[in-house]
Amino acid sequence: MTKRKALVTGGAGFIGSHLTKLLSENKYDVVVYDDLSNGSGVKNIPKNVKIIKESILNIKKFRNACRNVDVVFHLAVKPLTMSFDKPEEVIEVNDYGTYLVAKICTELRCKMIHVSSSEAYGTALSLPMKEEHPFFPHTIYAGSKAASELYVRGFQKSEGLKMVIVRPFNSYGEYMRSDTYSAAIPKFFNRISRNQSPIIHGTGRQTRDFTYVEDTCQGIILADQNKNAIGDTFNIGQGKEISVKQIAKIMSEKYQEITKKELKLSLQYDNPRKGDVMRHLADISHARKILGYKPTISLDEGIERYIKWRLSGDS
Ligand SMILES: NC(=O)c1ccc[n+]([C@@H]2O[C@H](COP(=O)([O-])OP(=O)(O)OC[C@H]3O[C@@H](n4cnc5c(N)ncnc54)[C@H](O)[C@@H]3O)[C@@H](O)[C@H]2O)c1
Q1: Ligand 1 atom closest to 211 (CA)
Q2: Which of 70, 80, 118, 312 is most solvent-facing, going by the fewest CB within 10 Å?
Q3: β-strand partners of 51
Q4: 263: left (phi over 0), alpha (psi -120 to 50) or beta
Q5: Atom of ligand 1 at shortest distance to CA of 16?
Q6: Exposed, middle or buried by CB within 10 Å (0-12, 13-18, 19+), for 155?
Q7: Cis link prior to 128 (omega < 30° from 0)?
Q8: Residue 171, pLDDT above cutoff 80
Q9: Over 80: is that where the pLDDT of 101 sits?
Q10: What does the pLDDT average to over 278-295?
Q11: pLDDT at position 272, please?
């Protein structure tokens, strides 16, 4: 049986590397296309997968890489926190880069699975958040994700691009970046593992729909595998709301349980983060119905996996 040929932009990143691994285990022939400007997941990519180290902004190289490809999973991105100090770079890659990816996919008749983000919604105006929830971005990054989706939609309507849009909610798990641009979970671990109290920005009552990365990837793969999904948009989340304060507490308790250390940790509070979203909870009923998507990893289990991975020294 001939394998389906896939190209993953941003395939050396956090979600992209897990997606690449799962695709190659699911009988896809996968190529990673990533400029390795971050590449926190490069160690997670199976050894037999080819990595093309190049930018999506290099249209010639990208076109060549996409020849004979059946589906492009588009995940290359500049991170949210970078949009505070280098907004032009974020817009160039997230928007102009996505435009180029959609253009090449249209030209070569590849299917495009566009990975958008729940950030595009901003804070929930109604709960749980359906795909029809309006876009009220809080940051330039969120704006760039909203805009990029609209270009992809435009390509579908006027140029005949075969595409599916998926909107993951906050994902977490192994190979998340833990540097200056990292998210709350790696930062909490960095502090707790040094016997320091985790720092909460704002009240800690802000909520997220934290989803384990393999569940996020399950949703992304199903978006390619279901013919009824073409042209549609899907929220991909756990479907559960949890506060940032609760996450810090769970992480702290799990860490102590796993390491059998007793730490005297409390929560430390700092200024709210610029552009922070206050509430997020995904309505995943559409993905459940059309894609057969079903999250399988509980928050407890996912946090435990993440802590064990950080402790393994593989990070
Ligand atoms: N992590 C989350 O919680 C989350 C939530 C919702 C949506 N998303 C979306 O999922 C996708 C992947 O996110 P992630 O967290 O894995 O990001 P990431 O930063 O870990 O990975 C992005 C990858 O893109 C690469 N890249 C950056 N600029 C590039 C360019 N010009 N050309 C080629 N590659 C380039 C980086 O090297 C990196 O490996 C993004 O589209 C993001 O918006 C992520």
Answers
A1: 3
A2: 312
A3: 32
A4: beta
A5: 16
A6: buried
A7: yes
A8: yes
A9: yes
A10: 98
A11: 95
The bridge status of strand 242-243 relative to strand 207-208 is antiparallel
pLDDT digits (tens, 9 = 90+) for 177-189: 887 666 899 999 9
What DSSP letter does each residue of 172-236 carry, written as one string?
Answer: E-TT---STT--HHHHHHHHHTTT-PPEEETTS--EE--EEHHHHHHHHHHHHH-GGGTT-EEEE
Q: For residue 20, give both structure tokens.
A: 């690449």
- For residue 9 and ligand 1, the question of a CB distance below 6 A is answered with yes
Q: What's the mean pLDDT in 77-83?
A: 96
Which domains does the chain possess? 4-171+211-239+281-297 (3.40.50.720)
In 3D, which of 307, 65, 287, 55 has the Cα closest to residue 188? Answer: 307
Q: Does the annotation mark 141 as catalytic?
A: yes
Q: Which amino acid is at 308?
A: K
- Give the H or E element holding residue 256: helix 244-259
- CA-to-CA distance for 173 and 254, rounded, in angstroms? 15
Give the Å distance between the CA of 262 and the centre of ligand 1: 36
